[in-house]
């Protein structure tokens, strides 16, 4: 399972590889071992799979620079809190213990904002695309250069 650390407002870190907003697409492709393939929907996205072939990460670019990070699989952690490989009630409780909260999203059309971490988190039950509505399991976590804390 892929494992990353959230660096709020900057991006994610996978081992010694920084995946930070503003980085160039080619540099990230080289660092993450990108291989072309699949049926990517958009030409401004790079999709990555974990070693077992499941969806792991989608990186979106604007003018060849990283602007959005969508973690779809594996583990994403910040200061001991698991953000992706968990259930929504567990995540809410863990965030509350650290003085943070999930709120109805204002940044996207689905999910819940964690303003302190500058992310949007969606459980499978939050997403219209899940026909089998599997409930509280976290489907994705998105960080974006556009998510600003005022």
Q: What's this entry about, in short?
A:
With 150 residues, this protein is mainly beta. Helix content is 12%, strand content 37%.
Tell me about this structure.
The structure is a single chain. The protein is mainly beta. The protein has two helices and twelve strands. The protein folds into two domains: 3-71, no CATH class; 86-143, no CATH class. The radius of gyration is 15 Å and the shape is globular. It is 12% helix and 37% strand. The chain has a seven-stranded antiparallel β-sheet, covered by helices on one side. A five-stranded mixed β-sheet has the order 3-2-1-7-8. This is DUF4265 domain-containing protein.
**What is the H-and-E element order?**
EEEHEEEEEHEEEE
Structural class: mainly beta
Q: Rounded to an integer, what's the Rg over CA atoms?
A: 15 Å
In the residues, how many domains can be counted?
2
Could you give the distance between the termini? 35 Å
DSSP strand tally:
12
Average pLDDT value? 90
Low-confidence stretches: none
What sort of overall outline do the alpha carbons produce when their principal axes are compared?
A: globular
- Major beta-sheet overview: 7 strands, antiparallel
Total helix count?
A: 2
Percentage of β-strand residues = 35-45%
Q: Report the helical percentage.
A: 10-25%
Tell me the strand order in the biggest sheet: 4-5-6-12-11-10-9
């Amino acid at each position: 399972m892929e494992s990353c650390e959230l660096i709020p407002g900057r991006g994610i870190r996978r081992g010694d590889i920084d995946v930070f907003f503003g980085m160039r697409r080619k540099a990230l492709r080289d660092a993450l071992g990108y291989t072309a393939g699949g049926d990517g929907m958009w030409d401004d996205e790079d999709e990555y799979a974990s070693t077992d072939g499941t969806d792991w990460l989608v990186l979106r670019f604007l003018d060849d620079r990283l602007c959005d990070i969508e973690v779809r699989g594996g583990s994403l952690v910040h200061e001991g809190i698991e953000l992706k490989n968990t259930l929504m009630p567990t995540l809410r409780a863990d965030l509350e213990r650290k003085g943070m909260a999930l709120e109805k999203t204002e940044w996207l059309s689905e999910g819940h904002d964690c303003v302190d971490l500058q992310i949007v988190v969606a459980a499978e039950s939050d997403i219209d695309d899940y026909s089998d509505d599997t409930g509280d399991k976290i489907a994705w976590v998105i960080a974006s250069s556009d998510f600003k804390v005022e």
